[in-house]
């Protein structure tokens, strides 16, 4: 017995993490995943390219196709990953999964071909989520894709979809995206790869757009739970309990896996995400405030000027 109801199997419960990268979402997802009723999948939006086509590493450290968990998910969801046209899914993602299409998702506008393609695209996510829940025996699957348009596509697609909107101070996010960070996902023998870097103005625009598109879910009657990075790291235990309750999972007593300033992480089968998804063992949870000294006055002023309306909306001081 895995504790999953027939209703859960028919309508997979998915906690989608929205917002923008460098908002503390990877360690948050991993912390939520310490609950045995939760399975953390990482950024599923990248599964088609990075996992299936590029053969990058699972969070457990094995190549994606060598990971037993993901092999079973592929078998359960599709009869094997070889039956998934990953190149087709990447093409659909590039054409359909864009923030500029948000009004079309809401109104259902578009030709029959557009709607059929959306249905096909969403159905592959539904199959991944459902299979992951079946294989793991969990009740809730976490997708930390943060692709702002994706939850708009997934609404009404046979999912019990919940959205967690993670927000962090735009200046901190800008500083983080300006740093050079190694991507450890590549295969042995490959040249070292790095995560993308953005200018302050570019990331400020992305910060505005991602948050606005997630906020727009409320206009469709689907109100996300908002969690600020600063509140999460200041109270990890309370924040995790709040999110689990939002996902329909009651928290009773001390799990022993997370404390006021730390979390004990076991290996997780995340298909993509921040490099810390490979971290195992005790991890300190504390505010990363390096941006306060590291971000130049000029860049700080620029990012503040470009993002101040949303900074105020989310309770930050411009």
UniProtKB/TrEMBL annotation:
Record's keyword annotation contains Transferase: yes
Domain Sulfotransferase: 159-252
Keyword Iron: no
Coiled coil: none
Any one GO molecular-function label of the UniProt entry: sulfotransferase activity
InterPro entries in the cross-refs: P-loop_NTPase (IPR027417), Sulfotransferase_dom (IPR000863)
Alphabetical keyword list: Transferase
Protein name per its UniProtKB record: Sulfotransferase domain-containing protein
Organism: Tessaracoccus defluvii
């Amino acid at each position: 017995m895995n504790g999953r109801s027939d209703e859960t199997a028919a309508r997979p419960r998915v906690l989608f993490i929205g917002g923008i990268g460098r908002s503390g979402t990877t360690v948050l997802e991993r912390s939520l995943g310490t609950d045995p009723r939760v399975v953390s999948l990482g950024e599923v939006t990248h599964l088609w390219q990075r996992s299936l086509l590029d053969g990058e590493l699972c969070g457990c450290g094995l190549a994606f196709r060598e990971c037993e968990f993901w092999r079973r998910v592929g078998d359960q969801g599709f009869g094997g990953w070889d039956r998934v046209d990953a190149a087709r899914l990447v093409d659909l993602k590039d054409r359909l999964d864009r923030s500029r299409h948000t009004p079309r998702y809401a109104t259902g506008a578009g030709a029959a071909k557009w709607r059929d393609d959306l249905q096909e695209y969403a159905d592959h996510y539904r199959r991944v989520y459902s299979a992951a829940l079946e294989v793991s025996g969990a009740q809730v699957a976490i997708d930390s894709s943060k692709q702002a348009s994706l939850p708009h596509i997934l609404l009404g697609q046979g999912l019990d979809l919940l959205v967690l909107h993670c927000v962090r101070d735009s200046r901190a996010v800008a500083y983080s995206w300006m740093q050079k960070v190694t991507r450890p996902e590549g295969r042995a023998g490959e040249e070292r790869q790095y995560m993308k870097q953005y200018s302050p103005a570019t990331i400020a625009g992305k910060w505005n757009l991602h948050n606005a598109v997630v906020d727009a879910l409320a206009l469709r009657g689907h109100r996300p739970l908002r969690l600020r990075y600063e509140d999460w790291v200041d109270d990890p235990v309370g924040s995790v309990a709040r999110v689990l309750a939002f996902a329909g999972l009651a928290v009773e007593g001390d799990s022993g896996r997370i404390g006021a300033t730390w979390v004990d992480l076991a290996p997780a089968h995340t298909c993509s995400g921040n490099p810390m998804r490979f971290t195992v063992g005790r991890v300190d949870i504390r505010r990363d405030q390096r941006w306060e000294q590291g971000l130049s006055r000029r860049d700080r002023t620029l990012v503040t000027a470009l993002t101040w309306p949303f900074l105020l909306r989310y309770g930050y001081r411009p």
